[in-house]
């Protein structure tokens, strides 16, 4: 049985959601590995998991007793939108019954040419859980709330052509949105230190998603390697 939306929000409030994702070209790409990564996150005190693909999401939902934010990344040649870009990807996630499904809610053209509102209404017809808007800007967040999204996440700030100059994580955006939005704000995007996670919460985030800094050892290793390269011995 899916827990209520309010119960899910209460469970994740003030905590760390760990993004357990490894794409096909990454060394940890494996359903079993991502499920074990989610288990490690649970042991470490995570309040939720964000995962990609029906296979990973299904395994994590079955084995990890934490709220799940499900996405399905798919690249269409005609569009830069790839985080759960169409209703077809949403439908693949429905049997898993995740507490939250996240989608790209930027103003970029969608692969099927539909507006964000049209896409949202399509989802709402088939899914009664919470829908999260992955946005990149202030205006996109406002539009997402007006359309009816349950949660807004700063996932794509700094990653769209028109936000490349924004800092990551976008602390200022979190502060600006906290003043005007009624829906919870999730901080995501290059939260790579514990102090940054705390700053996100202090700035108004409901919860914080941390990904590569925890679950991508190749990136963690590179940070150490790049740092010691600066030392001459």
TrEMBL record:
Pathway: Amino-sugar metabolism; N-acetylneuraminate degradation; D-fructose 6-phosphate from N-acetylneuraminate: step 3/5
Record key words, sorted: Carbohydrate metabolism, Isomerase
Role played: Converts N-acetylmannosamine-6-phosphate (ManNAc-6-P) to N-acetylglucosamine-6-phosphate (GlcNAc-6-P).
Example GO biological process: N-acetylmannosamine catabolic process
Family membership noted in the UniProt record: Belongs to the NanE family.
PANTHER family assigned to the protein according to its UniProt record, in alphabetical order: N-ACETYLMANNOSAMINE-6-PHOSPHATE 2-EPIMERASE-RELATED
UniProt GO MF annotations: N-acylglucosamine-6-phosphate 2-epimerase activity
Lineage per the UniProt record: Bacteria, Bacillati, Bacillota, Clostridia, Eubacteriales
Top-rank EC class of the record's enzyme: isomerase
Enzyme Commission identifier(s): 5.1.3.9
GO CC field: cytosol
The protein's name: Putative N-acetylmannosamine-6-phosphate 2-epimerase
Name of the gene this protein is made from: nanE
Key word Isomerase present: yes
């Amino acid at each position: 049985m899916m827990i209520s939306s309010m119960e899910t929000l209460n469970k994740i409030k003030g905590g760390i959601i760990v993004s357990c994702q490894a794409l096909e070209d990454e060394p940890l790409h494996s359903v079993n590995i991502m499920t074990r990564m989610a288990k490690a996150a649970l042991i470490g005190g995570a309040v939720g998991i964000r995962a990609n693909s029906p296979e990973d999401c299904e395994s994590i939902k079955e084995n990890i007793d934490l709220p799940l934010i499900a996405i399905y990344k798919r690249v269409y040649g005609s569009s830069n939108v790839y985080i759960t870009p169409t209703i077809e990807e949403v439908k693949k996630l429905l049997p898993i019954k995740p507490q939250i499904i996240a989608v790209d809610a930027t103003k970029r053209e969608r692969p099927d040419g539909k507006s964000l509102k049209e896409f949202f209404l399509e989802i709402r017809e088939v899914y009664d859980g919470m829908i999260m808007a992955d946005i990149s800007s202030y205006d996109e967040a406002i539009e997402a709330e007006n359309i009816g999204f349950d949660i807004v996440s700063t996932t794509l700030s700094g990653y769209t052509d028109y936000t490349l100059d924004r800092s990551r994580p976008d602390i200022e955006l979190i502060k600006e949105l906290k003043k005007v939005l009624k829906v919870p704000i999730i901080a995501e995007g290059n939260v790579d230190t514990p102090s940054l996670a705390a700053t996100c919460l202090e700035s108004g985030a409901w919860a914080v998603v941390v990904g590569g800094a925890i679950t991508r050892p190749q990136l963690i290793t590179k940070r150490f390697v790049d740092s010691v390269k600066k030392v001459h011995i």
